[in-house]
Amino acid sequence: MPEQAVTYDAASGRYELALEGGVAYAETHFAGERVVFTHTEVPYALRGSGIGGRLVAGALDDVRRRGLKVVPRCWFVAGFMARNPEYRDLLA
Question: Which of 42, 45, 52, 71 is the most exposed place for a label (fewest CB within 10 A)?
């Protein structure tokens, strides 16, 4: 299966990564110039395969392109940012 891109669905307020086994997503809401990440979900059968990291990296790359900052209320996003210093400049 070709590499899928992370997309932002404004109607649901979440970043999504569509996969053969389902859709991984990161729920968000905007607070001014900040994107608050509240929850991430990866289909059970795909957990532990790096999907969550791909999802969050793609979402954070989009946040950077938009010139926004991140408030990581989700433990997974917070942990990802702690482990990946190239994204720490995005912290609000």
Answer: 45
pLDDT tens-digit map of 6-27: 999 999 999 999 998 799 999 9
Give the CATH number, domain containing residue 38.
3.40.630.30
Q: Is residue 61 one of the residues assigned to a domain? A: yes
**Cα 57 to Cα 44, 49, distances in angstroms:** 20, 14
The reply to whether 1 falls in a domain is no
